[in-house]
Amino acid sequence: MSDATTAAEQLRATVESTDELLHTLAELKPEALFEPSALPGWTRGHVLTHIARNADSLVILLNNARTGQDLPQYASAAARDADIEAGSGRPLDVQLADVRESQQRFVDAARLLAPEHWQAVLTHRSGYRFPAWQLPGKRLAELEYHHVDLNAGYTPAHWPEQFAVAEFHRLGTHFGALEGLPVLRLIAEDAGVEARLGGAGEPELTVEGPVRALTGWLSGRSDGDGLQVHRDGHLVDARTALPQLPPMG
After folding, report:
1. By the 8 A CB rule, do 164 and 41 touch?
2. 169 and 212 in contact (C-beta within 8 Å)?
3. 188-217: pLDDT as tens digits
4. Whole-prediction pTM value?
5. Nearest to 9 by CA among 184, 170, 133, 147
6. What does residue 150 show for φ and ψ, rounded to 5 degrees?
């Protein structure tokens, strides 16, 4: 599969993901926007504003891929935070329109790229470099993870399977390379995939469950609900047995 084809598939997935998010928003009461989200210190209004401004920041990177420029994703970290704070108190109808319209700007900018543009190397706001074809996938992750973070009824169990499997592989590889973690064997029984955390040696824990539940735990969106954890052949409580993972990469 070519990079351009991968990008196009992920772009379509962001459209579907946004539709699901807008459906959730349509069910919210206006005052619910000012209630806490699952992210410390952020209301649902903060989360939605972040989702919209993320789309606009990725438009900048898409334009960089097309034009050869190297403009920063955000003017500064302080400006990013200030924009989120400033937009968090807006009413629900304004937030809903902002999410919809910013996503459309992202889609429109992506459709301007020729196949060769997806090969361009871009700079993430944190400084690392990555190929442009990964941008739609990054947008999809923002939408799916922060939809859960709204704490409005959408959970890891609602994630598309393809997204959950891809993130299981990504996060399994990320955490598998970190030192200091206990040795864990993760088995996603429904998807037929496995991951190993904590390096070599016999696993201290074997963790089994649906891929969505495993990815929910790996991403910090679940405390292990829906998982079975075994130590020395004995079933133990996932919520107390599973280690605390660092923030996902």
Report:
1. no
2. no
3. 999 999 999 987 788 999 999 999 999 999
4. 0.95
5. 133
6. -60, -25
